[in-house]
Amino acid sequence: MNLTGEFTTVPQLLRNTVKHLHPDHQTFLIHKNGAVWEEISYQQVLATADAISSYLLSIGVQKGDRLGLIIENSPAYIYYDQALQQIGAVNVSIYPTLSESEIAYILNDAGVKVLLVGNPFLLRKIVKIANQCNALERIIPVFDNYEKNIEGQTLNAGVIGFTTMIAEGKKCLPELAQTIETARGMVQASDLSALIYTSGTTGVPKGVMLTHSNFVQNVKSSLEQITVIDKYETFLSFLPLSHVFERTATYYVCCMAGCKIAFAQSIELLARNMEEVKPTVMACVPRLLERIHDKAMKNGMSAGGSKTKIFLWAIETGKKFREVQEAGQSPGFFLQMQQKLADKLVFSKIKEKTGGRLKFMLSGGAALPQNVGEFFGNLGIKVLEGFGLTETSPVMAVTEYERQIYGTVGRIIPGIEVGIQDIETKEFIAIQTHESFDENFECEEGEIVVRGHCVMKGYWNKPEETAQVIDSAGWFHTGDIGRFYKGNLKITDRLKNMLVNSFGKNIYPTPVENTYLKSPKIEQIFLIGDKREFVTAIVVPSRELLQETFGLSEEFFQQKDLFIEDKEIHEWIGQDIRKLSTELAKFERIKGFIIKRNPFTIEEGEMTPSLKAKRKVIEKKYAAEIDAMYTESVESD
Q1: Rounded to whole angstroms, how far apart are CA atoms 108 and 105?
Q2: Does 582 fall in a domain?
């Protein structure tokens, strides 16, 4: 899209949209209130934000103060963020799933002064730790009747309800309106906009300092790359706004481009919400796409008889049609007719489950298995992959709508440099920019480094850690391994994830795990093999498929034994592991595995909030079971 107007800071985005793209009565936010989807205009958002800014100023909040949010996605998040950004305060969003000790650490490390709290469960968490957080002056529950959750508690911080805060803010707004406008004008592009604490697969979380320029330039460059986004899009938001991906790719993109944001009620109601809202764009994680893929394949294959034959024919037809188009050719008349029939008989029914209007989905946060991306391409649903880190605002590369190379994360966005650096010698293998793009360019793999407007200001209060990742030439070292393939960036794995077997062979777990995840029987898989003679794995089976196949009750998954010993189940999963192993090099193949009864979870400390496995935690927690796999192998030899 052609971006109009001038904007260098987050609070300027909505005002620019109202000035150049939409009247202020136009709908900006959509959320479900009871049984009805309620629309909220730009005018309502801006007026509510002004009232909150007024209140914050009245209690002494100043430019640079850190204000916290621990809340699910909702209009309240937007109101509060807009309010604090325009007076120069800093957004510190906290994952609702974090433990009390982790929340207390962030509140203290950031020196959070005011905290917005989303629901009674979260408020009870905060009440337990509030007096340990010396900087905390106000707690603002978003919900009504919060008093019963703090009854009998003596808190150092004052507590005020969200609606009361807005009412108080409106009272003093007439005298503070000019102060707010002046404060908004004083916010600079180089000012700190947010502290986002890395989930940290190892060590203590670090506060990533992102400026207004980081966000604005990242969104602007992404929109220049994905030119098909226009002001008429409706985004469905369900990934946490506490994560940089959803905040940039949905919230701030919509602020700049003039799109609507509809908030899903929950992950459990996402499927229903998709059909109700009928979004045109949606940011998602690979796991959601994998589940849609698995369910569609299961339904198609279990239909039986002619229905299964039609399903398989349609998928194959879609594949042929996609491959012809991707080769830059026009499908012939006969193939076009076949594709239309396949769409009518099969694809349209799957698309209806997404609302039927999806222009594309944007996948990020983890690697998307290539076969899943191709599957959606066969259906005629675009899945654009993006890549980046919290420290890079986050987008470094994203797939172009008109040009898709499956298994890659797209072209480098405008305004930055991305290099591939030899892991051992630190010499540059390649440096690419948006402008130097060559669809035939390929290189060897190495560590991915980046320099430019997307790179963070540094880690909050951690200059030594900052110096470890941003070198003297300004290159940020991502810790990811990758290379360029057909001009696009291709990710291999995390440098810290790399396993080196006892024979010195490098094994990157992610692509190996993604190979085994092609099996519908496998929900999660965790590869082991560092300093070992061969690779083993902890496998989590698909609960639904396991129950269906073996007639298991819920009690089976509530047993105390963490691992499933049943030989039939072991052989059932083993069949797929042996079959898929043929796609891998011999030293990458799983030689043994154990079956975990229940998934790895955030609550158990095994996964980060962005759903990455905590390698050291898992290896330590299940050390005895892991060692047993290697001991048993030696004994059997």
Answers
A1: 5
A2: yes
